[in-house]
Fold:
Amino acid sequence: MAEPLPGEALEFLSWLSVERGRSVNTIAAYRRDLTGYVAFLRARGLLPATATPAAVEEYVATLVAAGRAPSSVARALVAVRGLHSFLEEEGIGEDPTVDVGRPRVPAGLPKALREDEVARLLASVTGDDAVARRDRAALEVLYSCGLRVSELVGLSLGDVDLDGGLVRAFGKGSKERIVPLGRLASAAVAAWLAPGGRDELVPTRWRRRNDAEAVFLNRRGGRLSRQGAWAVVRRHADAVGLADRLTPHVLRHSCATHMLDHGADIRVVQELLGHASISTTQIYTRVSTERLQQAYEQAHPRAR
Structure:
């Protein structure tokens, strides 16, 4: 019989359930993955709070050696990353998973939203309170700039140029790129940074030094975390019936796909997304080609 999970892991599962509204099945899957991970650590005299990058890498290698499918290994690593990110947010150790590579999972076509679905999502954020302004700005920036969720939450005030309509993002390997900020996204960010927005969430005392420069804050006045950004997307996806399809990365997919649909050069999209290789961007051309084929078959009188 498996040993019970330590208190910090149980707190993480509770947070997933209560704060992020994860389903019973999802919590059960996380519990199974974390039970295996904690047992692995205990056999080596470690706890989640004392885990090292080497231990996490060894754990992943063990799963691969056991014949687990890449998607199964990736899912287990998501649970482990989530646990350690949560613990770091709570001030319990440093995240040992930051530099641990993910197992390669066969790539499928990204499931971009339709343009009307994106419009419905963005219109779903109502109200003028601080949280509504933050959520609206975060969603607009994710779609307008095609940012990764880590790039969104990593934005600092000095990275945003509202006058020039530009954002400085730091991607994989801390590679810097300048991204245009669209008109509607600029307006949403300006409203968030105006009185009654971000300043309403500023704490009396900053918990961490770099939180004071964060563009996006959580309700406690700290820098919005990746999990927090996911929760923002999930909450508004629920409101418009897109919860089963929408993640922050789907907004990034949608940005790229819609630009290509409207004639953007693939090199421009590559630069916008911060892809090191054009081959990574080319997957979006396959999506657009599929849409072209569908439109042709539906509209051309001699297509069938």
